[in-house]
Amino acid sequence: MASLALNTKIKLPSGYEIPQLGFGVYQTPPKDTETVVNEAFAVGYIHVDSAAAYHNEAACGKAIRKSGLPREQFFFTSKVPPRALGYQAAKDQVEKSLTESGLQYIDLMLIHAPYGGSAGRKGAWKALVEAVEAGKVRSIGVSNYGVQHLDELEKHIAELEAERGGLGKGGVLSVGQWEIHPWCVRSDIAEWCAKRGVAVEAYSPLVRGRRWGEPTLRELAGKYGKSEAQVLVRWSLQKGYIPLPKSVNAERIRDNADVYDFELTLEEVAELESDEYAPVAWDPTTSPLDA
Ligand SMILES: NC(=O)c1ccc[n+]([C@@H]2O[C@H](COP(=O)([O-])OP(=O)(O)OC[C@H]3O[C@@H](n4cnc5c(N)ncnc54)[C@H](OP(=O)(O)O)[C@@H]3O)[C@@H](O)[C@H]2O)c1
């Protein structure tokens, strides 16, 4: 395994690079977000995962703009809210996210969840494709899609190519984001993405703190003199994923990024993985195509 570092980046199908460690801001109160994101920047995170639904895009954008560093040094993600998918809604959301964040472009825009029906998903995707062509968004992707939704997206991309004038006109799927950790490994989705070179972001990488004290986790933390949270972030990085740990606590923010002075063995990575399918967030991946 190539050695990992805080500045490790992954090349996306879009041609842009994404910093492998991200910083999540779900449930970070808007009034605290600028301070918290600045804490993260101070310890070396440069990638922030927000969403329209988190109501803190403005504070994230402010932290980036006020950093004094060139915009290109940061990676900012937002998401089209679920349950209102469609061409116009997604097109409007790109404009809203640009206005809220005050940024000239968004690095990554995801469809937050597949809810919205087939036509809604296709329309939303088309709006994101156009946003890339207009230079408003650099890379696009989806979140919480099951394999059935991913297969459908490939069909939509082919249809859009035919409708919009050829290869590439259907857009490029660069990133998928799912709840992934040792108690929810999602092998089917991970394999689907690996086959196509789609980067996988892992949300709730700390399992929202619900698994502290699990025997293997505790043992590995003891062996390496690291916290259980650090072992989980390391597991995700070594799987090749892009973990998005969230914290509002300065010490934890620092600890969650202090994961580059130890390496799990391949056996330990495998040993951590359970046979359980136990998501702790929502699970739209299992929803039918007409939901
Ligand atoms: N696409 C989606 O549908 C979706 C869904 C969920 C999440 N996400 C993204 O993924 C990010 C992370 O997921 P998440 O927020 O669900 O869960 P998570 O990162 O697994 O866990 C966050 C929880 O763990 C605590 N924590 C953080 N670091 C810790 C440490 N070192 N030791 C002990 N506790 C620690 C946090 O508390 P404190 O803040 O008090 O430290 C918070 O309660 C989100 O912020 C969001 O960006 C996306």
Q: In words, what does this structure look like?
A:
The chain is α/β, with parallel strands linked by helices. It has helices at residues 30-43, 57-65, 87-101, 117-133, 147-164, 187-196, 215-224, 228-238, 250-257, 266-272, and strands at residues 9-11, 17-19, 23-24, 47-49, 75-80, 106-111, 137-143, 173-179, 199-203, 242-243. The strands form 2 sheets. An 8-stranded parallel sheet has the order 3-4-5-6-7-8-9-10, covered by helices on one side. Strand 5 (75-80), helix 3 (87-101) and strand 6 (106-111) form a beta-alpha-beta unit. This is Aldo-keto reductase-like protein. Keywords: Oxidoreductase. The active site is at residue 54.
Task: Explain briefly what this protein structure is.
With 291 residues, the chain is of the alpha/beta class. It has a single domain, classed as TIM Barrel (Alpha-Beta Barrel), CATH 3.20.20.100. The protein contains 10 helices and 10 strands.
